[in-house]
């Protein structure tokens, strides 16, 4: 008999799980319930970097496996993610950062991450407009970028095409548990959606759902700001960052600069996914981008937004079974850097839901029970 899987959350992780479930077992009945619309929350607001450089050791293997998927992902999904392998460059702008860069590179290379130390001349060869005081940097040739909303919509297209039911405007107000096993979810309209397995991939709203069944999920919400400039002349290929600076800088195909780096906005209504931009954050982010890469300063600010991101105490995702509740899986707390991991997160969730071997070496450091939480 076919199993029924209900996925709460129509962001990248939930949609990737739906696609992988249907691809692995076309008989599985998969329903994705999205409270607003696909891409309306953090997935669609992401900086959309696709990197292995700078990852915590606990997620490096997962990042490398995901990185290998991105070049062929448009073909897999039969839809465009706007992925480009552009490389990544992290600059050292002072002596302390430059001294630390060598050991930082060696530690990552030992785990198979393709990174290399470059001097000031080498850094400028990759990004000619960088700050005059740059001493060098770290270059990752296999890193790259996609575009947040197109990538999310591509996963939605693939999930639907494979036979998953993706409902937008379908809120979930609670999880249904009977004698230690999940049996479905309570929809916002009062109806019950039954399921043999439930995957909670609801981002910053995941903790509320788990709290309703007595399971504390250790995440907090932080709204992270993104800025988009007007288009400029082509000047930057790699994704640019700098040690000890809040900066993620990309130039898109149309010449516009996408500027992130973790600058905060302010939550005004968590339940309604509403936020307020902070003038001081916008100003500081623009000043940082211009100081590190001068050509970005030639382009006027065109648009700003924020995504409500779920952060864990160790800034690493929580992935896998919920202790004490059979059939309940969670993927949450991606702490502002989950976008690139989405292909393999969906694969792992699908394998877990189907009772298959689930590539545990890739995610064993991300398990729910690492915090000692019990239901």
Q: Which range does the strand content fall in?
A: 25-35%
End-to-end CA span: 29 Å
Helix/strand/pairing category: alpha/beta
Low-pLDDT runs of 5+ residues are none
The gyration radius over C-alpha positions equals 21 Å
Major β-sheet profile: 6 strands, mixed
- Number of DSSP E strands: 21
Helix content: 25-40%
Q: How large is the count of helical segments? A: 10
Q: What global shape is seen? A: globular
Mean pLDDT: 96
Describe the structure.
- With 375 residues, the chain is of the alpha/beta class.
- It is 27% helix and 27% strand.
- The chain has ten helices and 21 strands.
- The chain has helices at 12-24, 42-45, 57-69, 73-77, 95-109, 120-126, 148-161, 206-211, 279-292, 342-353; strands at residues 4-8, 29-34, 49-50, 88-92, 116-119, 136-140, 144-145, 165-168, 172-178, 181-187, 192-194, 197-200, 220-229, 239-242, 248-251, 257-260, 266-269, 274-276, 301-311, 318-321, 328-332.
- The strands form six sheets. Strands 8-2-1-12-21-20 form a six-stranded mixed sheet, with helices on one face.
- Helix 1 (12-24) packs across helix 10 (342-353) and helix 3 packs across helix 10 (342-353).
- The longest helix is centred in the first third of the chain and has 15 residues, at 95-109.
- It starts with a strand and ends in a 22-residue tail after the last helix.
- The mean pLDDT is 96.
